[in-house]
Structures are given as structure tokens and as C-alpha cells.
TrEMBL record, chain A:
GO terms for biological process: DNA-templated transcription. It holds the Pfam family RNA_pol_Rpb2_3. It is an enzyme of class 2 (transferase). Keywords: DNA-directed RNA polymerase, Metal-binding, Nucleotidyltransferase, Nucleus, Transcription, Transferase, Zinc, Zinc-finger. It catalyses: RNA(n) + a ribonucleoside 5'-triphosphate = RNA(n+1) + diphosphate. Residues 1-88 are annotated as: Disordered. Residues 36-53 have a biased composition (Low complexity). It comes from Didymosphaeria variabile. This is DNA-directed RNA polymerase subunit beta.
Automatic annotation (TrEMBL), chain B:
This is DNA-directed RNA polymerase core subunit rpc10. GO terms for cellular component: RNA polymerase I complex; RNA polymerase II, core complex; RNA polymerase III complex. The lineage of its organism: Eukaryota, Fungi, Dikarya, Ascomycota, Pezizomycotina. The gene is RPC10_1. The keyword DNA damage does not apply. The keyword Cell wall biogenesis/degradation does not apply. Transmembrane segments: none annotated.
Length: 1232, 67
């Protein structure tokens, strides 16, 4: 490796392009130059500075002026010594493997305006790219699980009142194999996630509880009782990969760049996608069909209900599912104990005359119902409560109403004892919102506003699931012990513990099944969602990463509404603006931006205390008059008003100060709503937030000093938070701020500074160089295509056995990269190659975006890829005790040895590793018992079932893995490999949504070349540019060319990157045109081309769509059994369909014979005997109905038509066929 | 056509005769040790107990077409 003081930016995959370039003398300060000269920098001397922040391009010039406080190399040494402070720097390679502040050496001067982006890698180091998932899961395992246990702590018996089981504690242990569950003690499992993948196991850990229960007359305590197994999220704190460095990861055969955040169930990698939902426990005012309504979805641990306050024909009602009809609001208020009309009036309307006018009618409704007392109001409500159970005895309406109002309506507003004041205030608030929205339609809430959304992560989903299963577990457990307790005289003393063991499979299998199938069905919440989990797409590294940041929406895709699909301004910085699929899910599936964090739940109580300490007064003590008085603001905690303050501004400022001091969780948000005169504090889970630099007095709080400490490693991102330099803001709080994008934009009123503007894009859109110069849809297209690019999957890609794996043979990191590429480490697992592109017309095979490829480039490995396909053969065991085996004799018999069909088979009946299999050849000799059903014992003869290779193109056996799954079934996994070079029709794409297929592969001799003899790898038609407006692609070529000449990697970071002017300077300096255009000579004629050609490197991706997988033709072939029509699809060797529209063309043209041939003769022509007289089908020239042979005629018709007639007949619908002579006698027999 | 030639019958004959000694050698996925496995034996490395075994590469000739 290079000398310790030289920080190479990266192992250069594209080194052959520029590595030999001698260091160019550039205007640069001496110390850096000196460092550059360190020994061992061979070949990379020039690249030493490459990583130097080129973002603003003018770096050399800018830095020259600022080389003032230059630390010596001593500082560099301290960095090395202090390196072990960082948890990741456990071995000497870590520093090199993790080039933290890319290419920036410690001694480089710091310019806060430019270097504040260093916070971003610091953020990602702490948070990681998929930290949301991991955080959420950790929160579930460490906190939620205990809360669920607490809520379901006791199990009692109906029969024995003395019996009581109490759960004391619950823990999830470290993951192990299922068979190791009973090996308690200090046994340390050696399980790895990769073993689970290979063996089709579930990566799970035992859940254990501590219980105290009654046995006989004594209380018995048992610790570490296993109740089930919990699937473990990779890289969560329970995972074996947690806090492992790169070397340890390699030992576990795991890729250090793998993001984690998914589960492995039954050998499959499963992701629980982030779900987007409307926020819970908040009032949402909507207007639908002229009806104004305020609705609240209350969600507590016990209940999930929706409550409405609606305005109908000027009157206001409360609506709830358990109430059989809507109840006038005034009656509800009276039932809740607000008795005087005056008070109701003031609580809802305050002193606003307009609101009062609107509301007055409501009292009339109450009067008409003759309800004047709370008692009467409760009776009224009680009469309308729907009963869940039928009771024989008379109903007590009064109590039912109290019960309903306390626990069913708005359950999230807690009622303590009989104090209904909070609930009354809440309903008054809802009513007030409706009136306000009625008066001012601007106050209707926007459901699509990101601040009104909550993201549901895997932890929440699992906690719902676990709670459901745990409740059922307790229920089953209770039934079990009741059954035993029922017996009066038992042989032995009853021990409830023995019943737990029998039930632990319920939780294990329940959770495993939910994750494996994605069906979340919870009886309690009436939730029945399918497709919650997805198989992690491993097409490329970026596809896997993109999947982890994906957010799916609950809206149906069929509805043609633009609202939820549109780009929301509030998405800025939270959700990626470019990454969304095209088509039906457009705008409904979103992706997280780079710096977003999703909150987990924080405790409300300390915040509530803080609110009162800050001088706010309890809202229950206030009258309506006070609550709505001018200048008084109510303080709402998670949407529920709890206090009142007369100094909202200072309250806000003080609260934020406390948060910045770290007295309250940093994810608590507070914002002021002047429309409703409310201060909102949120501590709930699922809010999207992002970090921003705090600006005070027109000055950014993050100064050069802190950045230096960050670079030195003495400060981490957390320290920035605790010191109040950076804070998290959620979408609502962002509205209270004035955020400067760049440091120079900071003005008098600025409160925050963006850490880096390019973080508005996500991980996938971040791959695009110069995206700010592209037309927006092009970036969206690239986001879809980047996931289909073939490249490196992971460092452990060769130890994986996936169903389908595409690998590029020689991947290169892009010449023009972005900061996001470095942060996502795409440059270490790239998916593409830097192709030299000539933008010109060549032959006619480049129209419609087709590309012309250089044959010699393909020979050298351009676009070469490998396709690895898995075949699994489980050796099943059947009910009668027989099981599948392998026939190792047949292929070894002397007569078969020369048979090429068995050529690949080895001594054990399985194909040999490295052997080639052609179409029709056998790769596995499976032996299946001839009888698998009857209980016949003894020697059941085995039938050999040869597993044959079906594809037309041969493969090589890459790997044969023999293993056993958890159930003890033997698995034989074969990995088949194909190496493919580009061919005509293979799909390629640049990073700008410009896809094209290979139209022609030209010998290098015929390619145009420049005066240095450089030939293009790809010729691209210039017509691709004007209408697509992908200026970014041109800039990529321009910067890339300069980078190649100078020997540096250039940057195309969004809103930054290398400048065109600087790049032009470099080009000129190396004797090229500043435009990037070259003089080329035709390879065919040897003449100079009459034009200059835009010529340089562009990063090209090979996409997974390859002709070899799609090419298909058929003349005759198999037919479907039922319809006798040709089968469909390539896999079934199907025919090519002449569809409806093609048929329409033929009809319009009048090509009747062609129609007849396509639709009948070449398809399902069938001869039928039809009776002329009765119009029914007969057989063998005889009509059964007419009982004669007289009228029977033989006609040809499509078999599908015959089938239809008979099917209709089966439904008792008679179809008669009328026959008519058209051409006279002597028909034509079409069939056969 | 490229590919490998089927083995001559000489060696195969001897293995076909002696059924009982036909143990095939596999490689352990964990310790890389050699595992001799006969038909019907549990799939497990005798050394480390790992249950993922890989088949060894063929000793027959494999010819690739370079292109």
C-alpha cells in the first residue's frame, strides 16, 4: 500500500485510463506538493489531489489564497493516533477503507461555506443509509417489546382464582439456530446471516421472558423461558454483524457495504417497506361534497377508531362507528359535563361574532330534543350506543354512554377518573376547526402535506404483529391451563410452565409467516394488509439500497387523482424529488432523501413537565373565554391541547433552547400555528425530519473550528447535536424557520443553514452527474434504470447463491462522480463502465437511440457480464416415510458413460462443478419413490427423475452446494453460470435516462479515430440530445474528458461539481478543443470527417434486459390443452399472438384469407359435424337430436368456438349453428 | 463445439462395481476441510459441524471457447 501519509482517494478501477499520467505542475501551495511527493505514491501521484474537493471546481485558485494557518504533518500524525477513537477504526485498514472526508487531508484549510458538507458523511456514519429501519427495529426490540409485555402482564385462570402468572421481563437474545434453543447456558452460536441464506433458514433469535407464577400454594419464579423466536434485522443491535469492522465482516462472509435493515426468512431476504400514512391523533379538517368535517384517527395500544365532527345543513354532529346515529354536538358537550350553553358557546366560538352566528343554530337542536341536564344528554347518547354483546338484562344507558365517551370516542385523549374536561375541550376544538374552515376555506387541511404524514417502519409493523401474537399466546395458554384445572383430582401437581413450551411455535411461525408472505392480518385492528414485505432486489447494489429507502403509500393505485401523486413543496429535503416509478405507481411510491431521519417514539411525560415548567398553565383550569382570548396560545402535545400560554414566542424560544441543550430529545419538534393560535409539540413516531445547521445572529454556528475537530475525529455528529450546532427539524417546524441554502445567503432573519443542498436527492438520484442540468423526467428515468444496471452486488457476491444474479465482469467507478456516489460507496460496487463515446451519426443502425459498439472493446471486456442462475432441489420426505434421493448409478453405467446427456454428472449423481451443460443435458439425477401415499413399508422402488437443462444457451456449473435446512430436509443448490458479451439488441444506458439498444457492432478498423488513434467504444446518435435536453450528459462528457487528460476523477454533484470553464481550461492545456469536440478520421474511407465530433468518456450502464433472455420464435409447437390454441410465452415455447388490434387491421384491409389462416388454421382449427336442421353438433356424421344422418355437414371452426358453445350448453344456454351454402358443394378439409 | 470429453469407462467401471466405498469428497463451507460423504449420511462437516458443503471442481478437462 502507499505510504501512510498519502491518502489515496480510492482504489482506482479505471487506473489504466490515467494512472500513468505524470503529475501536472499546477498552482498549488508547497506543503501539499510536498506531501504529494511521499514515496510509494507511484502512479497515483496525480490522483492524490484528485479527491481534493473539486466541488466548486476552482479549488486550486481558491485554496492558494487561503493557505494561512497550515498545520504541519504533526497534526496528521495525531489524526492517526486518534483514529482508534472512532469505533470503526479497529484495524489498520479501517482508515484507508473508510476515506472519511474524501480526499481532504487534515492540513487542508477549512472554508465553512464549502466544507460544511463534511457533516453529511459524519451524519451518515452515525445514522447510516438505512438507519431508519435499524433504529425502528432496535426501538421495537428494546422498548416496545417491554411495553407490550407490561400491557399484557398477567394471565389469570377463570377456574382457579388463586392462579396468577406474571411476566416480569422480556428479552431478545442473540441469534442462533433453532436446534440450539435448548442449549442454554453460555453457548455462543456461530450462526451467520450468510449461513441462513444458504441453508434457507430464518435468521432469528429466541425471545425469553421471566415469569412468576403459582404452583400449588407457592409462587415460582422462572427466568429465561423461551416463548418464541424473533426474526432479527441485519445490522440491528441484536445482529451478529452489529459493530463489526470490515475484517470481521469478511470473516462472516458478509459485505461491509451491505446496508442491512432487512430480514432473512426461509433463506430469502425480506424488506418491510416504509409505509406512508395520514398522521394519527391529529385533527384533520376536510371538505367533501360540501360537507365540512373534522376527523381524528385515534390510535392507542388498545383501540384504533375514527371520530368525526361534521357540519351538515348548518348543524354540527359527532359521528362515530359505535354510535348508531350522529349526535348533535351540543348534546355531546352536555354529556361531557359542559352544562351551560354559554360555556359551550364560548368554548367553541370564543368571542368571534362570525363563528357565534354560525354556531347558534346548534343550540336549537338540543332544545328540540329537550335535553337540559347531563343526565338527559347521557341517556340520549346511551340510547345510540351500538352494543357489541347482547345482554339479557336491561341496559343502563347512562353508564353505557359514559363508558363509550370515556374509552371509545377519541380514546387517545385520556380521561382520568371522571374528569371529562379534556375530552370536552378536544371536541370543542374539533367543532371550532370546522367552523373556522367554514368561514375561511384556506384552513381546510391538506392531506398530502408531508407534515400531516407519518411513516410506519418495520419496528411499528412488527410491534403490531407481535402484540397480536402475544395476546393470542396468552389466550391459548390460559385455555390450556383451564383445561387442566378443570379436572378435579390430578395425578400430579399442576405446573403451568409445562404449557408454555407447547405454544412457542405459535409466535415463531406467526411472525415468520407474516414476514415471508407479507400478509399482515391482525384481528384486533381489523388490519389485513398484503404486500407489506418484499424480496430485497439484488440486481445491483443500488437496487438494494433504493429498496431500503422506498416508501409505499396506502392510496389505491387505480384512483385517478393527482393530489397524492404530485410533488409537494413540503417534500423538500425529506423525500427525493426525482426517484419515483413511472406509470401507475407514479408519485405514490417515493424515496427518502439522503439526510432524512424518521423519528421513533419519545416519552411524553418529561415534555409535559417541561411545558408547565416553562410557565404554561393547565388548560383544564381555563374557561372557554380564556382559551380563545386574543394573544393566548394553547400548547398541544401530540395534537391534544394541554396548556395555555400568554407568551407563545418566548415559550417557543425557550423550548427550543432546552432542546438544543439536550434537555429534551432532539427529535421533539415544536412549532407555532398562528391560524389556530396553537403551539404544537410532537414527540410521536414516524415523523420525517432532517438535520440543519443552526444560525444565530446572522452567523452559522458551525465554524471552521468545529469542522476541524470533526475532521480530526475528536467530534462526531452527535457532538454537533449536543452542542446545539445542528438540530433536527421536522416538516412542521421547518415552516417556522428561514433556511439559507448557502452560507452567503444568510441574512438578518435566517435561522438555519442547509448542510448541503444536494441532499434533497436520494441515494439513487444521487448517482446522476449534473442532475441540475437535466430535464427533470430524465432524472426520474435514470432512477428507474440505475436499479436495472448490471454491476457488482456486494463483496460477498461469489459466496451467495441467489435465484438470479447479474454480475459485470469488469466494473469501473465513474469518471465523473458525485458526493452521493462516495457516500453510498457506489464507487466501490459500481455498475457500469466509462465508455469513450463519439456523438455522431454512423451507418443507419443508430436510429431511434440505437448505439453502435466497437467490436474490439467488447473483446476487451466492455459490457461483459455473468448471469448466475440457481436451481434448488429439495429432497422431500413423504408422509409414508419414504423420501427423495439421488440416483448415482444410472449415469455411471457403462452404457450411459458415452451418452452426452449424462456428460456432466459426477459419481454422486450431481453435476460436476465446472462442467458445461447444454440444452437437454441432465444436471441432477433425482430419485423419487414410486409410491408416496400409501403406508407400504419396506423397499419401495425408486424412479429416476432427471433434471434437465432447458435453456438453448449452454451454462457452466459454477457451484454445487449440498446442505440441510432447519427442518432437516436436504437441499441441493446448483448455481449455473453464463458469461455474456454484448450482442445486438442488448440494452445500455447512460446515467441521464438515455437508454438505447445495441444496433450494430463494428470492427475497430471501421471506427472513426482521432489524431491520437483513440477509437470510441460507443457511437451515439446526436439526435438523442435536442429533444431530451440532457445537458448533464454533455457536461459529464466534458468533465470526464478533462479528468481523463488530467488524471483526476471529476465531480458532477448536484448544485455543484466541476465547472465547465475549469474543464475547458484543462482541455486546452492538454491540446484539445475547449468544446470537447475532436477532429476524427473515418475508419472506413480514411478521410477526415467533415465535422468535429463531441468525443469523450460517458459512464454507461449495461441493463439487465438482454436479447438472449428474450429471443424467441416458433413455427409449430405446443398447444394449450383446454383451448387447443398455441401456448403463450417464451418459457412455454409459445406462439406469437395476432392480437385484437392486428386483427382490426386485417379486417379493415379485407385480408380475409389471412385472417382465416391466422385465427383458425394456424391456431385451433377443428372439424365438427353440425346438423343443418337442428343446428346442433353431432358426432361421426350422425345427429343425436334429429336421429338421422341427413342434415349433418362437416365444417371447420375454431376449437375455442366449439368449446364456447359446449360450455354455454352446460349452462343451459342453447346455441344453434345456422348453415348456409356459399360456394356450393365440396368443402375444404382444413384440419391436419 | 467445445466441452469436455466424457470419461473413459475405465475408472467408472471400478466405482460402479464397488457401491459401498463410493464416498464423494466435498468441501466444508466453513473450515474448508475435506468431507467424505456417502449416500444417506447426514450433511455435516466432521471437523466443525458446519452444514453447508460444496462439491469440488471436476477433475475432467473443461475447454472454454475464448471470445
Amino acid at each position: 500500500m502507499v505510504g501512510p501519509k498519502v491518502r489515496r482517494p480510492y482504489p482506482q478501477l479505471i487506473s489504466h485510463l490515467h494512472a500513468q499520467e505524470p503529475p501536472k505542475p499546477r498552482p498549488r501551495a508547497a506543503p501539499r506538493g510536498a506531501k504529494k511527493a511521499a514515496p510509494g505514491a507511484a502512479g497515483t501521484g496525480a490522483t492524490q489531489d484528485a479527491g481534493g474537493d473539486t466541488q466548486e471546481g476552482k479549488r486550486a485558485l481558491a485554496e492558494d489564497g487561503m493557505d494561512v494557518d497550515r498545520p504541519t504533518d504533526a497534526a496528521d500524525k495525531t489524526r492517526r493516533q486518534k483514529a482508534p477513537l472512532n469505533s470503526s477504526a479497529k484495524d489498520e485498514f479501517a482508515a484507508m477503507l473508510e476515506p472519511f472526508y474524501y480526499g481532504k487531508s487534515l492540513t487542508d484549510p477549512i472554508d465553512t461555506a464549502r466544507d460544511k458538507w463534511n457533516l453529511l458523511p459524519a451524519f451518515l456514519k452515525v445514522k447510516g443509509l438505512v438507519k431508519q429501519h435499524v433504529d425502528s427495529y432496535n426501538h421495537f426490540v428494546d422498548v416496545d417489546l417491554k411495553k407490550i409485555l407490561q400491557a399484557n402482564r398477567y394471565v389469570r385462570s377463570d377456574l382457579d382464582p388463586k392462579f396468577l402468572l406474571e411476566y416480569k421481563d422480556i428479552r431478545v437474545l442473540s441469534p442462533n439456530r433453532a436446534e440450539e434453543d435448548n442449549l442454554n447456558g453460555h453457548y455462543k452460536s456461530t450462526i451467520t446471516p450468510n449461513e441462513c441464506r444458504l441453508r434457507d433458514m430464518t435468521y432469528a433469535a429466541p425471545i425469553v421472558v421471566d415469569i412468576v407464577y403459582t404452583r400449588g400454594s407457592s409462587r415460582v419464579r422462572r427466568n429465561n423461558v423461551q416463548i418464541g423466536r424473533m426474526p432479527i434485522m441485519l445490522k440491528s443491535n441484536k445482529c451478529v454483524l452489529a459493530a463489526k469492522n470490515d475484517r470481521e465482516m469478511a470473516l462472516l462472509e458478509e459485505c461491509p457495504l451491505d446496508p442491512g435493515g432487512y430480514f432473512i426468512t426461509r433463506g430469502q431476504e425480506k424488506v418491510i417497506l416504509v409505509q406512508e400514512q395520514l398522521n394519527k391523533n391529529r385533527v384533520i379538517v376536510e371538505s367533501a361534497k360540501g360537507i365540512m368535517q373534522a376527523s381524528v384517527t385515534s390510535s392507542t395500544n388498545e383501540r384504533k377508531t375514527k371520530t368525526y365532527v361534521i357540519q351538515k345543513k348548518g348543524l354540527m354532529y359527532l359521528r362515530h362507528n359505535t354510535l348508531s346515529e350522529e349526535i348533535p354536538i351540543v348534546i355531546v358537550m352536555k354529556a361531557l359535563g359542559v352544562l351551560s350553553d354559554e360555556e359551550i358557546f364560548v368554548l367553541i366560538c370564543g368571542d368571534d361574532a362570525e363563528y357565534q352566528d354560525k354556531f347558534t343554530v346548534n343550540f336549537e337542536a338540543c332544545m328540540q330534543a329537550k335535553i337540559f341536564t347531563q343526565q338527559a344528554a347521557l341517556e340520549h347518547v346511551g340510547h345510540r350506543v351500538r352494543l357489541t354483546k347482547k345482554f339479557g338484562r336491561a341496559r343502563n344507558y347512562h353508564l353505557e354512554a359514559i363508558e363509550c365517551l370515556a374509552n371509545v370516542v377519541l380514546p387517545h385523549v385520556a380521561v382520568e377518573g371522571t374528569n371529562f374536561r379534556t375530552k370536552a375541550l378536544y371536541i370543542a376544538l374539533m367543532a371550532r376547526r370546522v367552523i373556522m374552515a367554514e368561514v375561511n376555506p384556506n384552513l381546510v387541511d391538506d392531506r398530502d402535506y408531508v407534515g400531516n404524514k407519518r411513516l410506519e417502519l418495520s419496528g411499528q409493523m412488527l410491534s403490531l404483529l407481535f402484540e397480536d401474537h402475544f395476546k393470542r399466546f396468552n389466550h391459548d395458554f390460559k385455555l390450556g391451563i383451564d383445561k387442566v384445572l378443570k379436572k378435579q383430582n390430578r395425578a400430579q401437581e399442576f405446573d403451568a410452565f409445562s404449557h408454555i413450551g407447547a405454544l412457542k411455535n405459535h409466535i415463531t411461525l406467526g411472525i415468520e409467516r407474516a414476514i415471508a408472505t407479507g400478509n399482515w392480518s391482525l384481528k384486533r385492528f381489523k388490519m389485513d394488509r398484503a404486500g407489506v414485505t418484499h424480496v430485497l432486489s439484488r440486481l445491483s447494489y443500488i437496487a438494494a439500497l433504493g429498496m431500503m429507502t422506498r416508501i409505499s403509500s396506502q392510496f389505491e393505485k387505480t384512483r385517478k387523482v393527482s393530489g397524492p401523486r404530485a410533488l409537494q413543496p413540503s417534500q423538500f429535503g425529506m423525500l427525493c424529488t426525482s426517484d419515483t416509478p413511472e406509470g401507475e405507481a407514479c408519485g405514490l411510491v417515493k424515496n427518502l432523501a439522503l439526510m432524512t431521519h424518521i423519528t421513533t417514539e419519545d416519552d411524553e411525560d418529561p415534555v409535559r413537565k417541561m411545558v408547565f415548567l416553562l410557565g404554561a398553565e393547565d388548560i383544564c383550569m381555563q374557561t372557554g373565554d380564556e382559551i380563545h382570548r386574543e394573544g393566548l396560545y394553547s400548547v398541544c402535545l401530540n395534537g391534544t391541547p394541554i396548556a395555555l400560554t400568554s407568551t407563545p414566542k418566548s415559550f417557543l424560544v425557550n423550548f427550543r433552547k432546552l432542546r438544543r441543550m439536550g434537555r429534551i430529545s432532539e427529535f421533539t419538534s415544536i412549532y407555532i400555528n398562528h391560524d389556530f393560535c396553537e403551539v404544537h409539540i410532537a414527540t410521536d413516531e414516524g415523523r420525517i425530519c432532517r438535520p440543519l445547521i443552526i444560525v444565530e445572529n446572522g452567523r452559522s454556528k458551525v465554524t471552521a473550528r468545529y469542522l476541524k475537530a470533526l475532521r480530526k475525529g475528536t467530534m462526531e455528529f452527535e457532538d454537533f447535536l449536543t452542542r446545539g450546532l445542528v438540530e433536527y427539524l421536522d416538516c412542521n417546524e421547518e415552516n417556522d424557520t428561514n433556511i439559507a441554502i448557502r452560507e452567503k445567503d444568510i441574512g438578518q432573519y435566517t435561522t438555519h443553514l442547509e448542510i448541503e443542498p444536494f441532499t434533497i436527492l436520494g441515494a439513487v438520484a444521487g448517482l446522476i452527474p449534473y442532475p441540475h442540468h437535466n430535464q427533470s423526467p430524465r432524472n426520474t428515468y435514470q432512477c428507474a434504470m440505475g436499479k436495472q444496471a448490471i454491476g457488482a452486488i456486494a463483496y460477498n457476491q461469489f459466496t451467495r447463491i441467489d435465484t438470479l444474479l447479474y454480475l459485470m465482469v469488469y466494473p469501473q467507478q465513474p469518471m465523473v462522480k458525485t458526493r452521493t456516489i462516495e457516500l453510498t460507496k457506489y464507487d466501490k460496487l459500481p455498475a457500469g463502465q466509462n465508455a469513450t463515446v463519439a456523438v455522431m451519426s454512423y451507418s443507419g443502425y443508430d436510429i431511434e437511440d440505437a448505439l453502435v459498439l466497437n467490436k474490439a472493446s467488447c473483446d476487451r471486456g466492455f459490457g461483459r457480464c455473468q448471469v448466475l442462475k440457481k436451481t434448488v432441489v429439495p429432497l422431500k420426505t413423504y408422509a409414508n416415510g419414504t423420501s427423495d434421493g439421488i440416483d448415482d448409478k444410472t449415469a455411471m453405467q457403462p452404457k450411459n458413460l458415452a451418452d452426452p446427456k449424462y456428460g456432466a454428472i459426477g459419481k454422486d449423481g450431481i453435476a460436476q462443478v465446472g462442467a458445461r451443460v447444454n440444452q437437454g443435458e441432465t444436471y441432477l439425477m433425482k430419485a423419487v419413490p414410486s409410491d408416496t401415499t400409501t403406508g407400504a413399508r419396506g423397499n419401495i422402488p425408486m424412479k429416476t427423475q432427471e433434471m434437465r437443462y432447458k435453456l438453448p444457451d449452454p451454462s457452466y456449473i459454477d457451484k454445487v452446494c449440498i446442505t440441510e435446512n432447519e427442518a432437516g430436509t436436504s437441499l441441493i443448490k446448483l448455481l449455473l453460470r453464463q458469461t455474456r458479451r454484448p450482442e445486438l439488441g442488448d440494452k445500455f444506458s447512460s446515467r441521464h435516462g438515455q437508454k438505447g439498444v445495441c444496433g450494430l457492432i463494428v470492427a475497430q478498423e471501421d471506427m472513426p479515430f482521432n489524431d491520437q488513434g483513440i477509437c470510441p467504444d460507443i457511437i451515439m446518435n446526436p439526435h438523442g440530445f435536442p429533444s431530451r435536453m440532457t445537458v448533464g450528459k454533455m457536461k459529464e462528457l466534458h468533465s470526464g474528458k478533462a479528468g481523463v487528460l488530467r488524471g483526476t476523477l471529476e465531480y458532477g454533484t448536484c448544485f455543484g461539481g466541476s465547472e465547465v470553464l475549469d474543464m475547458a481550461d484543462v482541455l486546452v492545456k492538454h491540446g484539445f478543443s475547449y468544446t470537447g469536440k475532436d477532429y476524427l478520421t473515418s475508419g472506413i474511407t480514411g478521410e477526415a470527417l467533415q465535422f468535429y465530433v463531441f468525443f469523450g468518456p460517458i459512464y454507461y450502464q449495461k441493463l439487465k434486459h438482454m436479447v438472449q433472455d428474450k429471443m424467441h420464435s416458433r413455427s409449430r409447437g405446443p398447444r394449450a390443452i383446454l383451448t387447443r390454441q398455441p401456448t403463450e410465452g417464451r418459457a412455454r415455447d409459445g406462439g406469437l399472438r395476432l392480437g385484437e388490434m392486428e386483427r382490426d387491421c386485417l379486417i379493415a384491409y379485407g385480408a380475409s384469407q389471412l385472417l382465416l389462416e391466422r385465427l383458425m388454421i394456424s391456431s385451433d382449427a377443428h372439424n365438427v359435424d353440425v346438423c343443418e336442421r337442428c343446428g346442433q353438433m353431432g358426432a361421426s356424421g350422425y345427429c343425436r337430436i334429429c336421429e338421422s344422418e341427413k342434415g349433418v355437414r362437416r365444417i371447420t371452426m375454431p376449437y375455442a368456438a366449439k368449446l364456447l358453445i359446449q360450455e354455454l350448453g352446460a349452462m343451459n344456454i342453447k346455441v344453434t349453428i345456422g348453415l348456409e351454402d356459399e360456394f356450393g358443394k365440396g368443402g375444404y378439409d382444413y384440419e391436419a | 463445439m467445445s466441452g469436455y470429453q466424457p470419461q473413459t469407462s475405465q475408472t467408472a467401471d471400478s466405482s460402479a462395481i464397488d457401491i459401498h466405498s463410493r464416498a464423494v469428497s466435498y468441501t466444508c463451507g466453513d473450515c474448508d476441510g475435506d468431507v467424505q460423504l456417502k449416500r444417506g449420511e447426514p450433511i455435516r462437516c466432521r471437523n466443525c459441524g458446519h452444514r453447508v458443503l460444496y462439491k469440488k471442481r471436476t477433475n475432467r478437462m473443461v475447454q472454454f471457447e475464448a471470445r
